[in-house]
Amino acid sequence: MATLKGQTIAASYQDLVKRADTYSQTGTNIEIMNDSAVVQPTGLYLESGATTDNVGIGVADPDATLEILDTTTQLKLSYDATNYATFNIAADGLLTITTVDPDGAEADIILAPDGNVGIGTDAPAGLMEISSTSGHAISYITAKADATYTPQIQFRTGATPSTKFSMGVEAVGHADAGKFKIASQSGMIGTSEFVIDSSGNVGIGTASPAVPMHINKTAPAGIAKADSFLHLGVAVGNSARATIGFGYSGGTNIPAAISYKNTNNGGSTTGELGFFTRSGTGDDAPTQVMTISSGGDVTVETGNLVIGTEGKGISFENAADVATGETVSSSLLDDYEEGYWTWTAVGTTSGSWTARGGYTQMEYTKVGRVVHVQGRIETTGSGSSPVGGIRISLPFTSASLGEFGGGSRVNMSFWAHGGTIAGTAFGYLVENSATFDLYYIADDGNMTQITNSVSDADWEAVISFSYISAA
After folding, report:
1. What is the CATH number of the domain that holds 352?
2. Which residues contact 98 (CB under 8 A, 6 or more apart)?
3. Across the chain, which distance is largest between two alpha carbons, in Å?
4. What is the structure's pLDDT at 35?
5. Terminus of the chain with fewer CB atoms < 10 Å: N or C?
6. Which residue has the higher pLDDT, 421 or 449?
7. What is the pLDDT of residue 97?
8. What residues form DSSP beta bridges with 407?
């Protein structure tokens, strides 16, 4: 309301009423006469009959204590010429509050006719919509009244609303200060349902996650759906997959994955697990390298099954057949290898024979403790005056074969190029040794060792036999 200079509203009103020479009142309009005795409209109106204190600006029948009528900005509050706020009512009833200062952009708060509030947008799509085109934070939630107060948002439902979930940051003074939490209750102090710490680690069931994703749950012994730490489900249907992908990839595909393949089986579902990897560095899709079928069969599509620790392998868990008196000492298949070894031929007393070129190695295959050897031995005569029988090296030490009288007979063929043996040659495995000795069965049936008596001539032997190694 306008006033006379230096007077209050009440004093100005009294003067206007008393001084007919300086004002006139036509109906409910208040007009002021200038120095030339010309009446000037003020735009101010008192409600007809002055029965209330309602004041109108631009409206002749104000129906509120103060009513302002204009088609543009209806109210402006100023600190000075450049710092002010305006209030504007649009034709549809939309209220816009605009704040202006010389150092920042204008900012609008919108109250739409449907009750929606918009900050930074003139068309809020919900009860509250905040929009920003700057890089600054859109909203802050701060609890400053006390260091122990937790800034939080609570979600309530029901005819008589009650809090169902809360989320916020635990305040200073609490055990988990500074950690963001979501809890299924009113408040989140002391909870651990969902936690993000200052390092970005996520905890589910723990308020102190030690890794990027830490799930801590008291799991039952069962494997029902409710017992799962993580459950990936797919719609019923053949070939539908639920996949966990691994590795950073800037392209379309991922480097590795574990995938569950769903198979419809009469209303229930069976499935298989597939393991996928990519060997190249490009954006190729990973290929399935291993499969565990719904029946438990494991298939390695590509690559090898590598047991990386010595002494570990595949356990068959076989039970002894008591009826036959069988004793099972081990069901573990812990070794497989194949290769070559360089053989030596020495005298059982001293000396050695020299290998002929091209026949210095023989081949072996080892499956568990079963060793198979084969190859050809050929010498060029005595190398260093061998004395005693002929003893040939093996790739692995043989087992203790006590029930066989300290050794085991192996088949072989033997030729003495410049001499003869009167009988059938064979090898005799030396117990707890990586060697075997050469023998023959004489015509009289006696077992006789092949000695250096044939060493003056070249000799050769062809072997192919299996034996049990000590380990």
Report:
1. 2.60.90
2. 85, 86, 88, 106, 107, 108
3. 166
4. 62
5. C
6. 449
7. 92
8. 430
Please report which confidence band the pLDDT of residue 407 belongs to, taking 50, 70 and 90 as the band edges: low
For residues 379 and 420, membership in a common domain is answered with yes
Q: Which one, of 333, 379, 372, lies nearest residue 352 by Cα?
A: 379
16, part of any domain: no
pLDDT given for residue 20 in this prediction: 40
For residue 107, the SS3 value is strand
Q: Is 347 exposed, middle or buried (0-12, 13-18, 19+ CB in 10 A)?
A: buried
Q: Which two tokens stand for residue 118?
A: 């918009």
Extract the tokens encoding 129: 């919509």
Instruction: Quickly state the pLDDT bin for 379 (edges 50, 70, 90).
Output: confident
Domain match, 298 and 385 both? no
Q: Is residue 53 over pLDDT 50?
A: yes
The answer to whether residue 122 sits within a structural domain is: no
Whether 14 shows a pLDDT value over 60: the answer reads: no
Range of the domain at 266: 254-303
pLDDT band per the 50, 70, 90 thresholds, residue 321: confident
Give yes or no: residues 297 and 343 share one domain: no
Report the 3 state secondary structure along 142-169. Answer: CCCCCCCCCCEEEEEECCCCEEEEEEEE
CB 291 within 8 A of CB 301: yes
Indicate if 205 and 282 belong to the same structural domain: no
Same domain, 296 and 340: no
**pTM greater than the 0.85 cutoff:** no
Residue 17 DSSP SS3: helix
Tell me how many degrees the CA angle 407-409-412 measures, rounded to the nearest 5. 140
Q: Which amino acid is at 198?
A: S
- CA atoms of 241 and 245, how far apart (whole Å): 12
Instruction: Give a yes or no: residue 385 inside a domain.
Output: yes
Domain annotation covers residue 438: yes
| Confidence at residue 1, expressed as pLDDT on a 0 to 100 scale | 45
Enter the tokens of residue 105: 């952009």
